Amino acid sequence: MAKAQVVAMILAGGQGSRLGVLTKNIAKPAVPFGSRYRIIDFPLSNCANSGIETVGVLTQYQPLALNTYIGNGHPWDLDRNNGGAFILPPFQKTGKSDWYKGTANAIYQNRDFIDDCEPKYVLILSGDHIYKMNYAEMLRQHIENEADATLAVLEVPWEEASRFGILNTKEDSDVITEFVEKPAKPESNLASMGVYIFTWDVLRKALVEDEEDPKSNNDFGKNIVPLLLEQGKKLCAYRFSGYWKDVGTISSLWESNMDILDRPHEINLIDRSWRIYSRNPVKPSQFLGDSAEVRGSALTDGCQIFGSVQHSVLSNSVTVEKGAVVKDCVLFPGVTVKAGAHLNRCIVASGTIIGENVKAGSDVKGKSPYLNEKICSEGIVVIEGGLKIKDNAVIPANCQVDKDVHVSAKDNVIEEVFRV
Asked: In Å, how far are 27, 263, 326, 416 from 244, measured between CA atoms?
């Protein structure tokens, strides 16, 4: 394998259980986003734009859709003779076989792949964040600081700080003095973004030590970073101030899609100097019928709109029939909304057909066996892919329509289940 100064490793194997039925059959990084993208497009595009030519994508949970989507890496200019995109699932080893037990263990299991590339530095990325970052600038700072590790950080609201790994730095310096993973009472609001650059020989040694510790969670935030601090290694913060969103929950996924409409200058998907690339299906152009009304929305190829679409994000091949109203919604590829249906604050997964005169969303009151406030909040309704929702069905706020939830015939809103 060709030698590379830096190798990027994207951790893309998580189940994403907090996204409920949206990740029942696909890994979280493969979830559609922003009309024409998938979540994985953002770290892959950042690598391409940063000049990083060797990228390992570590997959595990429901990998087929993600593996197929990435393919040979062509959309991100990663189909190379030297370097390129490499899919790295867990594999059978002599004597035993292990799933990835944690983020650090995933890298540990692929240390031979990294060794073959002979890099001096390794960039560790999460596959489920929406942001644009120049990793080359972060690497430059890492080298100038002669750091053993550099963590990308940003200031978060104090009330949210306990959700993140929080660090402290020396006064008037970026040298990290303390790191606590999800503290109950944070002393700082400087949060780790889950983006790391390590000097490879330092990280490799730490991974081996961590693997030998039976009490370890094999996690970068919980184990590797504290271990390096304990050993007196030099860890530095790289301060980031742009748009960044962890889309690991239904509410954050919905909010980030809405940010494309409400805060387009922050995420700036039309920036030609830093494009977000994707593998797009070949579809005909979108069509707006004479009865269509579209306001403040994003839609892409293959959409056919005959009804009303307001402040919503539509993926390819979505159909909204005449008399249907879609407001504050995120519709995945191939969704059909039949005549007379009203959707408000809904996320509808791929291929689902919403029947005629269905009422669903935050403005719908009532009780339902599909209520799931652990997954859904803020009135958002989530509907699994590959369903035909009955005509005239009523789906109140904070419901998740899941074909595997057992309900009475009277309360059942699913008419048909089919393979997408």
From this structure: 20, 12, 27, 38
Percent of the chain whose predicted confidence (pLDDT) is above 90: 81
Q: In the block, which residue shows the tokens 């919980």?
A: 222
pLDDT by residue (tens digit) across 85-97? 999 988 656 555 5
| Closest to 320 in 3D by CA, of 338, 302, 334, 332 | 338
Give the whole-angstrom CA distance, residue 77 versus residue 84: 8
Half-sphere exposure of 362 (CA within 13 A, CB side): 15
C-alpha distances (whole Å) from 18 to each of 192, 246, 252, 303 are 20, 12, 10, 29
Summarize pLDDT for 116-158 with one digit per residue, the tens. 999 999 999 999 999 999 999 999 999 999 999 999 999 998 9
**pLDDT value for 90:** 80
For the chain, counts of helices (H) and of strands (E) = 9, 33
Cα→Cα distances 239→151, 175, 242, Å = 8, 12, 10
- Calpha distance 354→333 (Å, rounded): 13
Helix (H, G, I), strand (E, B) or coil at 393: coil
**The model's pTM:** 0.94
- Given a cut of 70, is residue 99 above it in pLDDT? yes
